[in-house]
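Listing S7. Sequence submitted for prediction.
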Amino acid sequence: MKNPLVSVIFFLVMAIPGISQTHANQSLPNDWYLRDPEQDSLQGVSSERAYRTLLKGQPARTVIVAVIDSGVDIDHEDLKNVIWKNEDELPGNGIDDDKNGYIDDVYGWNFIGGKNGNVDADTYELTREYIRLKARYEATEESKVPKKQKAEYDSYKAIKDKYEKLKAKNEQQYKLYSNIYNNIAHSIDTLKALMGVDTIRAEDLRKFETNEPGLLFAKGFLLNMFKNIGEDGNLDEYLAELKEGVDYYEVIVKYGYNESFNSRLIVGDDINNLNERHYGNNDVKGPDPTHGTHVSGIIAADRKNELGIKGIADNVQIMVIRAVPNGDERDKDVANAIFYAVDNGAHIINMSFGKSFSPQKEIVDKAIRYAEQKGVLLIHAAGNDAEDSDVEKNYPSRFYQDGKEAKNWIEVGASAWGTDEEFVGSFSNYGKKVVSLFAPGVEIYSTVPHNKYKNESGTSMASPATAGVAALLMAYFPELTAVQVKEVLMKSSRKFDNLKVMRPGGGMVDFSQLSSSGGLVNAYEAVKLAQEMKNQKTIVK
């Protein structure tokens, strides 16, 4: 039988680069994304500069930002004072006091919950489309497909091919990461026991003596790990990061590409009834509110409590709407989340999610049109596939099925802190037509459940950074409409003369070519422009 300690050689080579990246940039200030390019040499949103100067002593109203996401830890020390509360609803009495169709919706609503629990993981839309089309065409010979159905049949073949390839690829990744984790964990546990320690330190590991080949290998390879994480690094923390990779692929395999899993048994709604509005429950935290909590902190973390971090907006309330599982959100839930936000007074809706298919796009379009008519600003993350959004579809989208587009929509790509060639997040989608602007989305330190804080990267972080600046504008300039806020953010975005950056996916490109504004969101310049508009009386009341 092969020694399990020896089998980690190949896995270690594969694992270290991705994990060690999380230990980089340790000198970067946690609040870099709030900083100012001119005063701090960091490409943040310049919110602190705006507060210190242009907004000092100015009156402001409260702005409600709906966060459609995985859920939010509403008891977090840095969020509990900024969570929206439905004053017309009496908590816990089991009665729909405000007659809006949602019982005890005190802090928002959960559209992926039911009477007996909540959806945590769900399938991908690709899987659901494969299941739908497979039922129709699996037993059909291509030569017998009617002409009217030929396009759909061709789509089925393409979806089937993509589904099978991605399922196989992710099953392979899951097996790989599981083997990496199990073998490294075994190495650490074995040496801990033999050394009689709870935590392995580099200096103690060097002193450990053995003639057993497997243990010698384990010692050598753990010492190599210390080279990546530093002499004072913690192997247990390193292993915990690797476990996140294992868990990530486990969810993908068990749920994302699982044809047999049906989350709607938990919700209890009729998924085919797109006009059904009143389902779900009032549990706005859900099983794992990590993502939504991080997003909310970027927008609104309490600026007055001297704890943790400062949110970008200082006069804001977060309305929590849970509609995003660990998997792909459903069109019906997205639409109902937007309807709920608009009907309950949201000024801005942040949507840090997306997918490549939208089979019930008509109902989402209806909700977006409703938000547009009611003057609500929609802000959406561009996606993390390093793709050109002008070519590859990403939903929800501001483009309606009839060819028109919503004027109240901002699509956001992710940027980093310095103006070198790595300024754009290597994962970020981009697009001269589809993406509106960029905002900080790399190494963003924000709130996570249980009064903790963590760095995360993604356009999911760039979107709330933009939402925070938008909320700031709406608070101090209540005369601005949603469309005017978008106009201000686009026009005031920070431009760069001939800045060449690495385009996600490869190749160098001028930063101005990656979005329609060609710029980076900037609160200070946005406030200046809004003040000019107000003084010139160009703001429509």
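Caption to Listing S7: primary sequence and predicted structure tokens for the chain studied. Residues 1-24 have pLDDT under 50 and may be disordered. The chain has two domains: 8-15+127-256, 35-118+270-535.
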